[in-house]
Amino acid sequence: MKLHDLSALPKPIAQALSNEKLFTRALFERPESLSHLLPYEEFIESTGHFRHKDGSLGAVFEAECIEHEPMTADQIIFQVDALKSWFRLPENCVLQVLFDQAPISSLDPEFSRVTAKYPGGHGVSRKLFDTRVELIRQACLTPGPLTPMRRRTLVSIRYFPEVATTRAAKDLLARGEVTLYKEMKAFVSEVRAFEQTLLTFEKNSKIKLTRLGAAEVLDILRRFFNPKTSYKRNFAGYNPSLQLSDQILYNAPTLDYAGITREGIKTRTLTLKTSPQYAYPGGMAYFLKLPFPFKLSLCFSFPSRQKVKAFFDLKEFFLQNTPSAKARRQREEVLAVQDQLARDDRCLHLTFCVIIEGETDEILDSRVRDIVNVFHNDLECETIQEDDIGLGLCLNSLPLHYNPRSDYSTQRAIRILLSDATRFIPVFDSFRGLGDPLQLYLSRENNLVRFSLTENETSNHTVVLADSGSGKSAFIIDCIQAAKRRTPEPLVFVIDKKSSYAMVAEYFDADLTVFRPSEKSPFSPFRGTPDDEKIAFLTTLITTAVRLTNPAFALDSTHTAAIGKSIRLAYQKKSIQAKTGYHDGR
Hints:
Shape: elongated
Low-confidence stretches: none
């Protein structure tokens, strides 16, 4: 059959092939978008709730992560046990916890804030600090082991009302005004019940929670679906007149059974096959040592006590009649679980997923091995690489996207007790630094650390203790040049064995004194430029020394004035002996 011969084809097919409008529409008509499959409908400004297409309601919180490095073991255990209040939600709610470790953008406003903090100061300090910030920005553009990371934990609560809230308004109007009034009254009652649940959840949480609005959640979703574009330009603002699902996608993703590809970045999903053997507080902090982006998604649903009891009773019945050693051991475990449930514990359904991102299959394979290493060696559990349902699990990890009905098809939910579930919550972060930084560092866990030795204005002294060769001198030199960014320039005194500050003294017009045990001490406080602040400091230093050496001696204002005058005269004497003079303070 020739290509132009349509007579041999069935009549409907021949008519379709000869219809030019069908070809034109197939070429230019946009196919159904992924946005139609996303559940997000609108954001209710008056209540702060998200409403989905199926009528369910939701809210998203950002939890303040815990800096685990400066905490003791008892403090970590206390913080983890305090998470039990998160799992007291009603049965018609689901809880999502999403831990996101992502690279920091080179356009992040944090860089502008730290550089604009101290515009003055010494020129050398400004130059060194600007160079450091620029190097960290360049590391943000080139993914690698030195790429700065930012961690955040999002807590989402999705509420499924008992009334049908998805009926179209025209259907309700067709049924009469009474029906519309009843439906509206029932919906308002459900909204109020959900708001009370949220207020109780937020009040009982020992970790600070911040409720997110439509713009913040939309930005999170856009960063997931547009991972490269989000670092290059700003998106349009949130439009309350459009459906939320239609404001997320800017570039068409490629869907696959194993995951989703957005702008050349692929995803791969791992799930837990078995519960960890050693679930203990602080175990999730092991993931912070991974130097690449990933997401930990924990989706909890709350089955009724009747369903839980029926499941364990049935399992105990069959294990009791199975004459094997493995069955006897499993029956003992079931009895132990039933005993805990009788002591007001609660059984939950948990779907634990790890979403990994990378541009090539080789990068993904390497990162999968690192993730599996943490699960196998640190947490003692097995994982499954999802090649068939990875896309669905990845989409379920998005805020407010999880639906318990998806567990019927994926079959990845595991039963876990409330007392153990708290140990799975990833709320840990590395040290983030201080609020008034003079210097910017990269921690060993790739956190952007804002640091200052003078954060506390009442205790501006520091002792640095470390082994030989650990970099004490380099760290102190870095702190010295960072302190000189302040205006006016502060006085910095450094006492260090094996002095390493000759170069710093040269660039910052400082005096370097080397003490030798066999020689007379060359130190003299009468050095540098005389000004009122320095004379006041030296006066206080001398009066303090007098009080410490002779507490019985009573110093009065006359003694203090005499000491200050003596210091000023000593400065003048030194300048005459050195054949130098001061002009306009120089």
